[in-house]
Amino acid sequence: MMWKLIHHQVLCRLCLFVLFSFSCETALPLTFEVTEDLIGELELASTLQSDTLSDIARTYDQGYFEMRWANPTIDPWLPGEDTEIIVPSLYVLPEAPRRGIVVNVPEMRLYFFSESGNQKKRKVTTHPISIGRQSWSTPHGATKVVAKIKNPNWYPPESIRAEHAAAGDPLPRIVPAGPENPLGAFAILLGLPGYLIHGTNRPYGIGMRVTHGCLRMYPKDVKNIFDLVTIGAPVYIVNQPYKVGIARNKVYLEVHPYLAEDKNAFRDQFSQVVALIVTKALGRGVQLNWRTMRQAFLKKSGIPIVIGGVSESQQVLEKVGYVPAIVEPMHGLTSSDP
After folding, report:
1. What is the CATH number of domain 1-91?
2. pLDDT, tens digit (0-9, with 9 covering 90-100), for 251-263
3. What is the pTM of this model?
4. Residues 49, 18: contact at Cβ < 8 Å?
5. Which of 8, 127, 198, 212 is catalytic?
6. Among this protein's residues, is 15 annotated catalytic?
7. Maximum CA extent, the chain
8. What is the CATH number of domain 93-240?
9. Quick check: 18 pLDDT over 70?
10. Could you tell me where the DSSP H helices lie in 229-324?
């Protein structure tokens, strides 16, 4: 697994020196060429005394919970001076058509696949998102981009106005564009009535379940997608708390916590993942490390890990340099154990 060592202090001080009027939001671009199922690389950031995990997340274009899952022992508000933070910028691509926009709801991440160029060398850009709260869940399914609006007004539906009124925070029928508009400066309308991909005037909520079902992005990120996507582009909203990918003849598993309301749907996670691996392997031999696979389900770190290898034969597997860990039988394990 590849790591990139990045020092957050140096990057942000340089950013402030060169462009003092801009926020150092993104240290590196998250655009990659798609050649296999895996993109990106893990990074390490070193904190300033004043940093919070949310600050690091915004700098590296990560969501809040992504950073929490990858750094479960770090105090999110007081990580301390010179603390090494894992930036989980290594991803297994979701199981969906690789075109247009793909949103993986439990991962709280959006993928945009370029609409031009050679299909075999297509590029993907990825950004974190916020999704709907449990009582306002983000819908799943296939749709498309139907409109793009710069500086949108917000017309809150009656259900949201009633909720705000009950909380003592009444909303007008129209919230004009501007700093008080929660849609931010850009909105991408979807074919699902009432649902948008939009910016925000509260960027530190990105990567959380805080919306009324819409997909919320950092201001810089939504502008990027707004500029790239075309009207009519397909949008696939999927629900994949675990993703399986094959890269360099290794099998990767990436596990995120499933949404609270989906517990029953993912009770048989072991058997579901094995079925995904068999489909991905396309008839090739597969060797899995069940212990590592179990640990991935227990930790739910959101970081892709190697759980095995695929090959035409064991000899081919050895030639490409993959030496599997001790593969233990699945004795005593059931699909619902983790």
Report:
1. 3.10.350.10
2. 999 999 999 888 8
3. 0.84
4. no
5. 198
6. no
7. 69
8. 2.40.440.10
9. no
10. 269-281, 290-299, 314-319
